[in-house]
Amino acid sequence: MPLSSVIPALVETLLADPRIRQALEFLRSDQKTVLRELKEMALVPGPPFKEHEARSPMYLEKLSGLGLRDCRVDREGNAYGFIQGEGGKILLEAHLDTVFEACAPLAVTERDGRLYCPGIGDDTAGLALLLSVLRAVRQTGLKPVLSVMAGGTSGEEGEGDLRGLKALLRDHPELKACLSLEPGTLGGITKGGIGSRRYEFIFTGPGGHSWHAYGLPSPIHAMGRAIAKIAGVRLPAEPRASYTVGLAEGGTSINSVAGRASCKLDMRSGDAAALDRLEEEMLTLVRQGLEEENSFRASSGKQVRLEIKPAGKRPGGDQPDNAPVVQAAISVFQALGIAPILEAPGSTNANAPISRGTPALTLRTGGECGNVHALDEWFNPQGMYQGAQATLLLLFTLAGLRGVTEPLQLQ
Fold first, then answer.
1. How many other C-beta atoms are found inside a 10 Å radius of the C-beta of residue 210?
2. How far apart are CA 394 and CA 329, in angstroms?
3. Where are the beta strands (DSSP E) in 272-354?
4. CB-based contacts of 368: which residues, under 8 Å, 6+ apart?
5. Are strands 175-182 and 188-190 parallel, antiparallel or unpaired?
6. What DSSP character marks residue 193?
7. Strand ranges (E), 62-164
8. What does the pLDDT look like over 83-126, one tens digit per residue?
9. For 24-62, what is each residue's pLDDT tens digit?
10. Full-prediction pTM beyond 0.70?
């Protein structure tokens, strides 16, 4: 029987099971709890690289309270536990970190059905939806064939470089598939990952007074030359790529030759070879900018020095539309009367497993989200239970329901 027939039949078998139907109905009735937890967790800070201080222990306590086994926080700040099965594992996760530093004001306000708070959508909504799914599993006694590993991960945002997901893949090679939860339009499926390379360039020199030390090479001028060269690069339309110098800083005063300057460069593409070429070109241009400044001020006998620090390497990749995990998600949404949306490749936790050949998707929570990564970020949870229903049904499509269905063959 072709895959296109097997998967919808598998989903229909699950939907015919009274415990699955009970779980789906529970998720509809669980929205008050979801809303309460969403507001509660939004007030727990999750700044970059500091998830372990507050959000990880908070989420660990919630997972433990839902009866997951062997709950823990690992060295990277991932908080997770297990629903015991046999054989391999299916990962269900949302990320704990936000883009906001610990000093960001956290307060939930409500206007016109929207909840406003930094990070309330990305990815507190995913964390809340995941807990609702786990409550439904516990409430109805659903038993997966494969084990389910569920929890919150670290390092998804910014320079976190997917460190949490990378660590789970390294430490748990038995993972057979990964499902990530992010805010977005109901039915959204991200099946591909945009790769990225990030660098910090640090320029240092002797520095001095703008009058008395005039003629010395300047780290800021060297950085400016480098940035100007980067800004002049024209990229082909295909394969698509992008770059930006997103941060630049340096100097101590307006009347000083700077002693230090630095900038950070982000490069992206879904094509690994194109990203390799772009990276090589950009590193060459930065070195040329440095050389030009030193040559222009060679009579001073001094030089600006350059340190190149890698600041992140997100792998990319894609999966065909007919991959079993993609077809399973499409079938689940269709069976629930939700239009599936195959989104363009993105930059999510799914990048890491996809790049290694492990089936993975990022699913959207439903509801509405806006001003993501801004202090006035907002989320409207209306209809979010449908995202939870789709997540639960897809989870058991992949993992199997003991005594009813076998796990989906993903490779």
1. 13
2. 6
3. 305-314, 341-343
4. 114, 379, 380, 382
5. unpaired
6. B
7. 69-73, 79-83, 89-95, 109-111, 114-116, 147-153
8. 999 989 999 999 999 999 988 899 999 999 999 999 999 999 99
9. 999 999 999 999 999 999 999 999 999 999 999 999 999
10. yes
